[in-house]
Structures are given as structure tokens and as C-alpha cells.
Amino acid sequence: MYLLPIIPLCVIFCVGTTLSTPVPEYEKFLENPRYLNYDELTNLFRKLETENTGLVKLHTIGRSVKNRELWALEINSNVNNRTLLTPMFKYVANMHGDEAIGRQLMVYLAEYLIYNYGKVERVTRLMNTTDIFLMPSMNPDGFENSEEGQCESKDRYVGRENENHVDLNRDFPDQFEPQRAGTLLSGRQPETIALMTWIISRPFVLSGNLHGGAVVASYPFDDTSAHRTCCVESRSPDHDLFKKLALTYAENHQLMKKGDACSNENFDKGITNGAYWYEVKGGMQDFNYIHSNCFEVTFELSCCKFPFAKELPQEWKNNKEALLSFMEAVHWGVKGLVRTEGGDAVLDGDVVVVGLGHNVTTSNRGEYWRMLLPGKYEMYAVAYGFLPSERVTVVVEEGKTTIQNFTLKHEPVEQGNFKDLRSVDTDPFDEYGFVIHDNSIFKHHNYDELTRYLQFYHTMYPNITKLHSIGKSVQGRELWVFVISNTPNEHVAGKPEFKYIGNMHGNEVVGREMLLYLIKYLCERYGIDERITKLLNTTRIHLLPSMNPDGYEISKEGDASSLIGRNNVNGYDLNRNFPDQYWTNKYNEIIQPETQAVMDWTLSEPFVLSTNLHNGALVANYPFDDTASGSTIENLSPDDRVFKYLAHTYSNAHRTMHDGVPCPMFPKEHFQGGITNGAKWYSVTGGMQDWNYLVAGCMALTIEIGCYKYPYAKDLPLYWMDNKEALVTFIEQVHRGVSGFVVSTIGRPIQNAEIIVEGINHVVRTAKYGDYWRILLPGNYNITVAARGYESYTSNVTIPESGYVQYNVTLMKDDPLHWASAYDFGIGENQYHPKYHTNQDIYSKMAYLENKYPNAASFKSGEDYISMAVHSLIITDQHVVDDDKKFHIGVIGNLFATQPIGREIGIYLARHLLEGYHIGDFKIMKILKNTVVHVIPVIDKAFEQIWGDYEKEALGNVKPDKYLCNNISSDFKQVGEQLVTSRVSNHQDTKSVANALKHLLLEQKFDFILNIEGGSSGVLCPNTKDQIQLYKKIAEQYLSVLKYPPVCSGPAKGTDELLTEYLYREYNAPMLTAKVSCCEYPAIGNIPFIWRDNLDAIMKVISTTLTGVEGVIQNVLGEPMLNATISVTGMELQFDVTKRLAHFKILLLPGQYVLEIACHNYQPETLHVEVEEEKVLSLKVILKRGEEEVYGGTVVHPTNEQESVTDGSLREPFKGSVKTGIKGYYSIPEFKKVMSHYDALHLTLNDIFRLYQGLLRSSSSKRQSYDFRKQLYNFLRFEWKIWNSCGARQVHA
């Protein structure tokens, strides 16, 4: 008998597609059945959401009396953005806390839908076409008070009722009861208020309310105007439709359809009209139908209210088909859009079915759904301010949805006496933009009044608000935060977080009041104003009206500019109390409770945009707020273009700020366009906006919204009108730029992935659901997404003129071995088993590398005084034997004992260079033929004495989610400090190592040094103050290829500008310090990945030695001009030739240069050269003799003769010794003057000896002659190299 219908069905499927064997339905949730308590249910729903991003979204629509969340799980294939005209369906269970079957069935249904999506065709279709909401428990407090196995309610209905002993299914407004005083919400339970606001604010189409204690489907109405106990039907206008809906469930329930599942009850076909069974006043199903578009039926599922858990699998079997069939019924009838002639959505329009006394209204997107039984209907649409549409005949077919759209024309404005009257009534808002007119709000609210105000609006709008404290002030006042959104209780995937903070300075009060008015404005207009509704549906807005409530309480109304109440009660200015990128001082060395609370709160949410509201000026102030020097000069952030745009956005939307008119108290303070850079205005250390940007990744401004700090209350309406539009417009900017999700290849969200925009040195990170937001202006951007443990991905992203684009990224799991093979010549030691080595371990590895690569490596460890103290590994192509013709660069680490990262990275680099050389890598072969790389991993040997009790070794095969820092400090002077001080270190070897390093710098004359450290970000380089800025450009090249620059906060540690400048000025040693990690002492597991992040940048810097100019300088006879010097126009340094072949080699970046070659007694030569990328230009320079005079046996230029003879300083008495750059050796002021003078004459040392003899003859005593002679010898022996005398030859003792 079943064969005939099956055959055509098979034909249809086989023709359409080839089907595999049906996949068994997922129902593992039936194993080990039990009821989940509140915490277990919460954890399960959060897990379902986290693991099924894109399909599942967890909402809380309010809280119970005992503050438990009323969870609703949304399930839809497009859950983050409901597709237009997708109907919304809901099941609500456990309204009576002891009726538990429905609660657990909702858990089962959720798992059934989610895990069978894409596998079971019926489930997939249902989720693709329906927006499903499942609320397991409307009464979680009652459930926790109930007891498994109890088939009837306890005494006094404990468990059935909520915590306040109210039956929630008797607490809704009733159509036949007199209206209570106040609003519909007045006097109702928190759970009821939450459901009412949820039902009214969402366009639900169909709903089921799941109960226990009987087995029947009950449909509206639930009571009558006659107030009978039972047995009289109370029919709704859609009586037949409700009966069909009830039958749809009952007929598919194995017991309900019989009608006699429970003793003493008999329901025809398992359904009943509610009032006919027994009257229920204040029931939820009638409220759904009367006050919203939603049709609801109540289903009693079991005779026993709270059966034992072992019964749950059978209950699932009884209800499964019924639950699915009832959900599918949401598609019965007609749906469509109501639009204006211009295509705009018509909000709150009525769709009328002629002959049925129940209309449905349109959503804020102009959608409607009208459930109807099959048949023909006459329909039309109407809305306030519009003419009714034409009536149309609509045919509804069984099992199909009919689409019928309506277009409305604006009602023409009547002419005559009533014209003005009609226009007055069109705006539902008062003159301040509020729905409910209330001038009493325009007052200053003290702490208690503010608290009551916030609690009131949270109670009135529980489904779109959340009120919580983020901490307490010094005096114990709560720091209240008010959250407004359609999902206020927690972060929702894909929804950005925004915050306003007011009253940071206690006597600057306008921001505090503006945020209170903004709460009223947003709450009242939600669901009425399309703009505000969209904003709250797409944004989670956090408002902290008062960060300094203690200071407010002592402030005085009418105070225009004093400091009373500005600080917290401990006397700290909270806007100087945050950690600063440059300074730790008395204002921020002790973090205050209010500051700490805001910091913790800010880091707990993925805030995208923030503003701090102040008073005392009228300007939008953007980062940075201070400078490294403390000067009041402009200091721009990497996102300066965006910050200027944001500042202009607020200023232009403010009624007067953009005019830039100065405040009366500061008549000379003009701000063009109403904006300013903070540091340019005045320097603020420890400011909140810079901390937000640098540490929390949140774009933040400080906006001064009024000239007077504490104006009189009568002026507050004016302030509100000035700022109202600006406050809303600024929030909307959170949606500017690019946002999206970062997930793994299996769809798991990746938290803390870095979003890196090329050319902007600022990183934002993904939140816990892999979601991110990056505010950018329209344009094209190369965006790299990188995450610890994953391969990075880079793509070009275009942000359109409309201002926003979504960009989702999928990352592949990271494979260290693959990376090593691709980028590091397969060197496993640079990836696996990283270790902080002892000094001796490092020296052993350097010796090993010398033995392994004898043609490219030489380990220097005791051949002379320098190498005894400072061991180095010299790496170069030793087949090219003349090192004088090569560039020399140093790669150093551990200049400070507290900076150990360079120790390990130095060894990694040595391995990389030598293995690359060994296998014939073209680039490295080219570098080492041209360059000598001096790798010095250990300078300060004291690290292993202070390295602490941390892990020294790790596997290295798993990239950490984030970089971890070990604590490290020293109580002794480190080598880096010893270099710039005359005070003797109290630590062993520090002085000798520092002196040896100084001698190394003098003797080696490095073209540059790359110093590798942590403790900050960026690259330090010498401030050469010349036009070419060679070292700054090399530093910029490092940063330009750095894919994942560390973004650090707080003062830099280790090498600083002072040390960098000292080495450059005193020793001609240009040192670039690459800060490769925010940690001074990174955890060992981070080392391989810091190496990976920085390898390209390090090699980019080393590769600059492939570019420059070299040559020899000879006279016309081909003799080397050993006294020649070379200057590059626009560079500070002057370059010598080698003292054997008069060869020179100068590192230059690509570009055009002018070289000036000079030597005494020869005509100078000027050469114009062009240097190309990765090419060293070779020159041969021939100098010709010029005119000359002889003076005192020394060849000098005539123009200098008189000056040299008349230098009276030669006859001044000897004033004693002074210290030079190298500790332990001395010179005298007179001699330095002479040397600096005669240096310009290119004197030889023989000439200097003649000068020395003349000085001896003029000395005033034998003792002074002896001192002079001794110190001059020391100078000539050890310090002659710091003078640029063209013809200097080494002095032999």
C-alpha cells in the first residue's frame, strides 16, 4: 500500500541529483539523560555558540528575581544578520519552574538542529528559512527550587512560581481586566517585563509555550469578559487558524492526539480552547496575540510536571515530530514588504485582511507576515501619513508562502485652516528629541540620584539594557556602567563595542549629565526611530557617567574653572594616572582604584572606539597627548588621519565646536575646525586616551564639550542640544573601516590574531569569537592577518567611499618545520628546543660554528685584550681575503644584562648566515663577499646571574597565543650604563668589558651596529642632524618589512637615545637598536617566533651592505694617497682611506650623491655619483697637485697660516688633565684645542711631534713637562684614531 507514493518520489530525487546513503540523525544527547541545572545549561549554550559561529547566537533577554539570565538561543544559517523576510519563531519553556519537560526538550532541540544542519535536509531547510529562538527557562529561579520526580507542585507552589511567589502565567496584561495605573510594565515581575519587551520589540510570527501537568494543545483566548470558570469558548478573530495550529502539534504527538493521555481528562483530538478548559487571566499566549504580531499556542507535554530523567528519551520521541512540524507552520500564509514610492521601508504600517478583525504591523525594515489558512483573501496596507494601498486578492495555497508587497503613497497635505495643525502632530518627539517629555531631568544628579536614575531606566528597558559596576571609588562609591544594545549582557560575535566616559575630573560635570540624557534618548527611541534602532541592533554601547564620583560630591555648581573636586580624594588627577608610553612620574607611579577599574574594564571588552568627555574648553582632542621630551609640540600617532577624521566628526556635528571660537576665559586659544593634537595643545603625561590606543587597541579621543566646568543647571538643556547629534554621530563611526572574522581552516574562531595595516604602525587584535574591527578611511590597504600558531595571510582590501567593508580571513595552522625549510634553510635548532644558554654554552656554539664552517667563520676569544673580554664570531667569505675592502657591521646582544634576547637571536642569525653560505644561497654569498659580520651575542656576562627561576628550555613546536614576559632586574651597573658614565661599576668585569668594547669600536670602525633588544618596539638610531639621514632610513627599512611589529606601552627599557648618541658622537659608531619584543626577558617558548617575526627585517638591514660606493684614491703617478679623506655632501661623517692602498668604501642607500675628495697639497675633486639598489659603485679617483707654501717644515694652505701662528692658547699655562671617551687615558684642554685646530690643516704626526717639542720648551716647570709628556704619549698611543688627520701614521712607542 506504500509502494505507489514512494516510486514517484524516488524518480524525482534520482533525476534531480545523486543521493548518498542518508546520514543517521545526530541524537547522542539522549545518552545518559539528565536535567541540566542553570549553570550547566549556561555553559552548554555558550559552548554551542562558540563552536558554531554563524549558526548560533546566545541572547539574554533579561534576568530573574535572583539575577539569573533568561537565555534565548537563536539558530539560523545567517544568524548574525537575519535575511529580509525570514520569519521569526520562538519556543518558551519552563514558565512554571516545576514543569521541566519543555526545558530539557529545548536543550535537545537545540543540539538536534545544530548538529544535523547540513546533514538532514529537513533541518537544513528549516534553519535556512527560519530565525529560531529557543528559551529553555523563563523561570530559572523556580526550576532551582523544584525537585525531580515531583508530579505535582509543592506546598504553596514553591518552584511553580517565581522567587517572589508570583505565577508568571497570570502576570501579563489581560484584555478583559482594567488597565493598571502606570504603564503596561508597571508592577510586573522582572521575568514578565523581560518577555513583554522581547515580544513587543521583535517581529515574532509564531510561538509555542511549553508546560507540563497535562497533555493537550491549548489556543487563545484564555479567558472571557464574563469571567466564567470554564466550559465556554472565547474565540479570537483567528479561531480557525489557531485550531489548525494546535492540531498540527497534537496530531504529530504520539499521546496528545488521543486526547486522553492523563486520567480524568478527555480532549477532542488533543486540543482545546483555553477558556473552555479553564480561565487563565494574565496569560502569555493572549498577550502575544493582542499586543504583537505573534500567534502563540500553549502545549502541555506530560501528565507529570517533573518526571524522572530516565523518561526524557521517550518524551523526546513523543514530541520531536510535533516540535518540528509546528515550527514549519510559521511559513503558512502571506508575507511581503510595505514600501513608499521612493522605496523606503514603512515602519508600523498595518496590513489588513478584510473580514478578520486582527491586523499585523510592519517591522522596522517594512516586513510583515500574516499567518492564514489556505483560501482567498482581500488585503491592503495602511500607515499613518499615507493613503491606503489598493485592495488586492491574495490566494494562499496549502504548504506554500504567498508573497504580496504593498506600495504606499504619502497623504497629500490639506490646504486651509488645518494645515499647520496637522503638521504639529507629525513628530512623536519633544523639542529635546525625547519620546516622553520630562523637563525635570535637566538638573545635576548627585551620586544617589544618578544611581536611582540608572536603575529606573534599566528596570524600564531590561531587554535592551544592562547596569553593572566595574569597581569602586576610593570612598566606596560604585562606578556604574550602563550598557545599551539589543544584546546588552555580553559581547556578541561581530558586534562592535563602544564607550563614553564622563566626569573623570569630578568638577567637570557636563559629560556626566549628557550621558544620562543619552540613556533616555536611546532607550525611548529604540523601535521607533529607525536610526537609533539600527544603532542599538548593531552596536553595544557602554556609558560610564562618572569615573570620579567622589570628586563630584565636593564640587560646586557654578564653578567655572577651579580645581575643587577635580582630583580623586587621594589627590590624584585621574587623567595623569594611566601608564604612559614615555613617562613614569609622581602622577602615575601609584595607580588609583578608579584608574585600575577602568583599565580592567577596558581590557575585558573588545572596545573599538571611545571618548572621554571633559569641560573647560570646546575642542576635540586626539592623540598623542605628550612627547618623549615633555615639550609642547605636535606628536602624531600612526593613525593620525583617522583620528583627525574622528575629531572633525564630533566637532562638525556639534552646533558650535567647529567654529573654533575661543572660550571667554582663554580668548587667545583658537582651535582651527574645533580640533587639536593633544601634545600640541599642552603635554599630558599618563592620559587615558593614549593608554586606550596603545594598550587596549581602542581608538580614543578626549572631547571638551563646554567652556565652563560646572555650569548652572538652567544651562543643561542648551548643552544637550549642542551635543545630542554629535554624541550619536560619533558612536556611528565605530562601523567605519573594515571588520570581519578570523577563523581556522576548520572554522574555529582565532582569538588575539593581529590585524596589521601596511604603513600604519598600530595593531588591533581579534576578540574571543575571532571578530575584529579596524577603523580606516576609504582607500586601498594591504592588510596582514597573523596569529600565533598560524601562517599569516596578506591581501589588498578596498574600503569603499561608503566607509565600510567586511573582510573575513581563514588561517592555516602553523608548521615550524615547514617554515624552517622555506625561510631558514631547514635549521631545526632555530625552531625546536629553544633555550637560554649560559655564556659558556654560547661560546661553545660559536666555536662549533667556526669548526663547521671554516671558510666563513672565525671565533675570536682571547687573541688580544679586546677579544679576551668580548668574544665575537667573524662571518665573511674568507676566500676574499682583503677585509679592508669590505664593509664591517656588528650584530650585538646583551649590551645590558637585563636584555638577553639578543644572545639567542645572535646565534640564530649566525646559523642562518653560515648555512646559507654553505648551501650557496645567492643573497648571502653576495653579502659575505662584500661584508664582514661581527656577531657578538654576549657583552654583559651577568645575565645568567639574574635570570631567575624561569624555564630555560622549551619544545618550541607550538606558537604561544601571546608573548609572555619574565621579570628581570639588576642591582648593579650594567655594561650599557657603564659605557656612558664615569662611575666605576661594583660588578665584576663590567668596567673591563665596557673599556674593551670602546676599543673595539675605535679599532674596527663599524659601518653600523645592529643591537638586538626587547623591552619596547621600533628601532633606535643616531640623530645625525644631516640631510641624508642614512641610519634613520636603514631603521625605516627594518620597520617596513616587519610584518608583526610589537606594539608596546610604557617607557622603553635598555638602550636609549643617550647611549645611542654617545656612541655615535664619541666613537663614530652608528648603532641601530632593534626592539624585537615588548618583553625585556621573553619567556623561552617565544624565542623561535620572535626570530621568525624579525628575520626578514634583520636580513633587510644586513643587505644594505650590498649598496654603496667604493674605490681607490691615487695621484697621477698611481701612488696611493694615504692622507686622503672623502666627504659626502649632506652627511656629518668624514671617511678615511685605508693606510695600505688608500681604499675607501662608503655605505649609501640608492640615490644621487656628491662626493668631495681632498688631500693636503692636492686639488680637491668633486664627483656626482648615482648609487643603484644592491650595487656597489667602483671609482678610481686621481688627484692632481695644487699650489702650496712651506711653513716651519709643514705644508699648509696660505689662508690658514696666520690663524695657526697667532693661536694664543698655546702659551696658556697647563690646566691639568680631563677624561676622554676611553676611561683611563687622558689629554689636556690645550692639546685638544691645538689638535682640533691643526686637524683642519691635515698635519702628520711628525708635525705634531715638532709641536710637542715647542710645547715642552714653553712649559712652566719640569714637573709640568713630565706630566705633559706622559699624557701626550698616552694620547698618541691610544687616542690618535679619533682625530681625522689625513696623513696619520701609527706611532711606535
TrEMBL record:
Q: Recall the GO molecular function terms of this protein's record.
A: metallocarboxypeptidase activity; zinc ion binding
The terms describing its cellular component in GO are: extracellular space
One Pfam short name: Peptidase_M14
> Keyword Cell cycle on this protein?
no
Which parts of the sequence belong to the Peptidase M14 domain?
A: 34-330, 443-734
Q: Where is the active site?
A: 300 (proton donor/acceptor), 704 (proton donor/acceptor)
Cross-referenced Gene3D superfamilies: Carboxypeptidase-like, regulatory domain (2.60.40.1120), Zn peptidases (3.40.630.10)
Determine if Signal is one of this entry's keywords: yes
Cofactor(s) demanded? Zn(2+)
- Cleavable signal peptide: 1-20
Which keywords annotate this record?
A: Carboxypeptidase, Glycoprotein, Hydrolase, Metal-binding, Protease, Signal, Zinc
Q: What is this protein called?
A: Peptidase M14 domain-containing protein
